[in-house]
Amino acid sequence: MRQFRLYQLCIIQQLINYTVQYAKKSSSTKQSSSSLEQSASSSSNSSAKASSTAKTTKVDDKTAGVMLMLLVEPDYLKQYIGNDYFCYSPAGENPISDATADYSYLTANGDPTSFLYYKVDGNTVTYKMWVISDEGSVSDGHFETKTVSLSTLENDYYVTQSQKDEVNSYVSQLKSESDYLNQNK
User: Model's pTM, two decimal places?
Assistant: First the structure.
């Protein structure tokens, strides 16, 4: 099992490195990513303006990740949370590539599309997701980077006690990626 996991990580690393190199050479990829970032930024800026009077709490990195996952992949979170292979890794602990080394992540340990990379900087949450190519190929995909405000996440998922209970329940079920890797040695 450990050799299989190491093989998976090597393949993922190669895919990410290839994609990063390819993205640098491809201006069309940069242009489409820029359009997507601008669209996401406009959307999150509208949400941030609408909730500018909201008070941001001091949530930890895991909680921010769970709220982000509820925003971008709620069904995925609810399907895999609590499984031994659904994990959290803080930034720098288990870097997959240079492109994501300073990002924390949540994953169900599948192909690159199963990772949600994110980092919190003040009220800004920057996140990256692997998107498959137009032809449906994971290996020919690329990262999309977007932002959302932490206050927007909190206003949407962490206001009422029932919302806090739901988010905290998900957080408590997260396994550590390091523990997952160690149990499969």
Answer: 0.69
Residues 168, 4: Cα–Cα separation, whole Å: 32
pLDDT tens per residue across span 123-171? 999 999 999 999 999 999 999 999 999 999 999 999 999 999 999 999 9
Q: Are strands 124-131 and 142-149 parallel, antiparallel or unpaired?
A: antiparallel
Distance CA(15)–CA(35), nearest Å, equals: 23
As a whole-number percent, the residues of the chain with pLDDT over 90 amount to 54
Q: How far is CA 46 from CA 39, 129, 141, in A?
A: 11, 22, 29
Distance between CA atoms of residues 79 and 73, nearest Å: 10
Q: Give Cα separations from 7 to 3, 4, 42, 131, 139 (angstroms).
A: 6, 5, 39, 21, 15
